[in-house]
Amino acid sequence: MLIAQISDFHVRAHGEEGTFGIDNNANLRAAIAMLNDLDPVPDVVIGTGDLTNRGRSEEYIALRDLLAPLAIPIFLIPGNHDASPSLRAAFGEHDYLAGEDEFVSYVVDRFPLRLIGLDSTLPDAHNGAICARRLAWLKSRLEEAPERPTLLFMHHPPFKTGIWWMDGIGIVEGVSALRDLLDAHPQVQRIACGHLHRPIQANLGRTPISVCPSTSYQVCLDTRPESHPQFIAEPPALQLHTWTGEILVSHTAYVDFPAEPIDLRPLMKNWDDRYERIHKGLPIPKVVRY
Ligand SMILES: [Fe+2]
Prior knowledge:
The chain is α/β, with parallel strands linked by helices.
C-alpha cells in the first residue's frame, strides 16, 4: 500500500498573490500533477492541514479547483490556518469530514493500513491541542481494532523541534496523555504530521513521528536560541509512505525540482544478476568495492 502525504499548501483565493515571492497555488498544482504521474500510483493521499492560508471560503473554492485533477482519493484534515466550517462547506461530498462534533476526526478503514485522521487544532489559536474529548474518541477508535496496523495523522506534531518560534505554536494540551494512549496501542505504526514545513523525525514514547515538508515554503533550519522566525525557499516537497505489511518506509520527494537522474550502470558489472536476485528474493552476493 502506497500513501502519499501532502501538507501545508496555504492555498490563496484565485487571483490573489502568494507571499514571500512563492506561488502557493502553482506549487500545489505541480504537486498534484506529480502525484498523478507517479508510478506506482499511490492508493490514497492524505493532506495534513493548512490547506488554505486563512480559512476563507474563497480559498476553499480555489483548493477545490486545484485538487479537482487529482486522480487518487484524498483525505483532508485541518491545520491552524484552516476553518473547519468553510472546509466542510466546500467539500460537502467528502462525507468523512462531517464528524461528530466541531472537530474533523475520522477513520478510513478500507485499506491494509487503517488511517485515523485526528483534528489537532485549537479554536482561534495557531497552537494545537488534543483535548480530553478527542483523546476519548481516539481511545475508542484504537480499542475497536487493536489488531489493525494503523497510521495516525494530524496537523500539529507532538514534540518540540528546537526551532523555538515553531515550538511556540506547538501543542499545548494532551501530549503526555496521547503518549500514554499510543504506548498502550502498538498497532499505531506512525504519527504523520505537517505544520513544521520541514522533513523531521522524532518519536512520542514508542511511536515514531514523521513530519512532511510543505508544498509551499519551508521553515528555515536554525535551532540557535538567538535565531529569529524565518522561511526559506527550499524546494516544495511531499512524502511517500509504503506500508509493506510489516513496516512503514517513507521517502521525501521534491516537487518540480529540476534534476536529471545520473546513470550508475557503468560503475559496476552484474546489475542484471542482482536485479534477478532482488526481485526473486534470492540471497544477494556481496558487492565488491571497486
Ligand atoms: Fe503551515
